[in-house]
Amino acid sequence: MHKTVGNFGAGTAYGGRVAAGDTGQAAGQVAGHGDNTMALRVEALESLLVEKGYVDPAALDTIITTYERDVGPRNGAHVVALSWVDPEYRQRLLTDATAAIAELGYGGRQGEHMVALENTPDEHHLVVCTLCSCYPWPVLGLPPTWYKSAPYRSRAVLDPRGVLADFGVTLPEGTRITVHDSTAEVRYLVVPMRPPGTDGWDVEALAALVTRDSMIGTGVLAAP
Ligand code: FE
């Protein structure tokens, strides 16, 4: 079990390889944790629904492609970057995230009730769905495989500092870690701290610095 926990962090700790390394590695190592069974169940369920005429497979493919290719974490990065340069937007985001995110044209499925969590030197937020894989699709796209893994889901609550260490993140001892459990009702977007050395940068340049993991809370942003 400990080995597995180490693995899910390793896939993510290597920055640029996140997407490929993550999926490949996690897919291989979750075999004993029921996720492959889950994939088979989903496939069986989908076949059944298609066969009964409840869903159109082309429509399903369109949805998945949209979230995989077009949405992704860049939307969230835009939200975060704007909140760094525009204090009024930041205030709106922290007050009513759903509305503030909708201002930028992002919203819909799995993002109806968004809450933005502001990371500060005193408090670091970490998001998990202990039950399954609830995730804010409109701002982050589809969840990474490790987010759905049993080790992450259980250990994020029991040992958040250990989980962060697996992701290569060490916070100062004085920083409190608050873990938020996503549900079907509420989805969270972590607003990471703006990296030092970025004074005067525009929203687009800042957004390029924002990683998916920093908006889940498993990553922090280093100075560019
Ligand atoms: Fe869930």
Low-confidence stretches: 1-34
Shape: globular
The CATH level-2 architecture is identified as Alpha-Beta Complex
Radius of gyration based on Cα positions: 18 Å
Q: CATH homologous superfamily?
A: Nitrile hydratase alpha /Thiocyanate hydrolase gamma
Question: What portion of the residues fall into strands of 2 or more residues?
Answer: 5-15%
Instruction: Calculate the terminal CA-CA distance, rounded to whole Å.
Output: 35 Å
List the total number of helices.
13
> What is the fold named in CATH at topology level?
Nitrile Hydratase, Chain A
Assembly context of the chains: single chain
Number of strands: 4
Helix content: 40-55%
What small molecules are bound in this structure? fe (iii) ion
Rounded average pLDDT:
81
- Number of structural units classed as domains: 1
Strands across the major sheet, in which order? 1-4
- Which structural category do the helix and sheet elements fall into? mainly alpha
The major β-sheet equals: 2 strands, parallel
Order of helices and strands: HHHHHHHEEHHHHEEHH
- The CATH class is identified as Alpha Beta
Summarize the structure.
This protein has 224 residues and is mainly alpha-helical. The chain contains 13 helices and 4 strands. Strands 1-4 form a two-stranded parallel sheet.
Topology:
Layout: H1 2-13, H2 18-29, H3 35-51, H4 57-71, H5 74-85, H6 87-95, H7 97-103, E1 114-118, E2 123-128, H8 137-140, H9 145-148, H10 150-158, H11 160-166, E3 176-181, E4 187-191, H12 203-207, H13 212-216
Parallel strand pairs: 1-4, 2-3
Helix pairs in contact: 1-2, 1-11, 5-6, 6-7, 10-11
Bound molecules: fe (iii) ion.
